[in-house]
Amino acid sequence: MDMEVPEKQTSSYRYWVRETTADAAPLPVPKKLSDDDVSKQPSQNSIGSVWNKAGTWEEKNLSKWATARIKELLTSVGSLEFSSGKAEVTDVSRCTGDAFLVTVRNKKRVGYTYEITIDVKGEWLVGDEKKKLKGHLDIAEFSYGELDELEVTVKIDEGKDLQQEDKLSVSQDLKSFVQPIREKLMQFEQELKER
């Protein structure tokens, strides 16, 4: 039996990289750029690290700076005078949280979440005598853009011998610190955005 061997067909498809013809464009020749050529290149205005020219995701922890700055700003609040006394901020005894700067698609975004306790001391006219009192202002978790809703809880440390109405009066006076605290935290937010 005679078997016929089929003739090998040539493909009509030609892969252009493997074969070059006379009418093909010449291959590119690498050229080293001089310093002058590099300086003429348009600069890319990217935000963030040098390695992140495309401005993709990059997160930077600013907690150390933010904690120190919040403490510094809030201790500078100073003192307030009330109808029956005066009080001053003595220390920021607790300042816990985190702050960060995120670069996404070449746009900077900042954020933070903190909890603070501010120590205060003051002197009030209670009845006919002046009483020196200490206490603290607790500000539970607050975040970027939420300063309008800032809430302060007042705790008086040395008010055992005070009547309830006197404690309420002193607490109301100490809640007056909310506005100067809010202003200092707004200043902090602005400084954080500019970093």
TrEMBL record:
Chain positions covered by the region annotation Disordered: 26-50
GO biological process, alphabetically ordered: protein folding
Compositionally biased residues, Polar residues: 40-49
Parts of the chain that traverse the membrane: none
PANTHER family: HEAT SHOCK PROTEIN 90 HSP90 CO-CHAPERONE AHA-1, LD43819P
Signal peptide region: none
One Gene Ontology MF term: protein-folding chaperone binding
Domain Activator of Hsp90 ATPase AHSA1-like N-terminal: 59-195
Similarity comment: family membership: Belongs to the AHA1 family.
Domain of life of the source: Eukaryota
GO CC entries: cytosol
The protein, known as: Activator of Hsp90 ATPase AHSA1-like N-terminal domain-containing protein
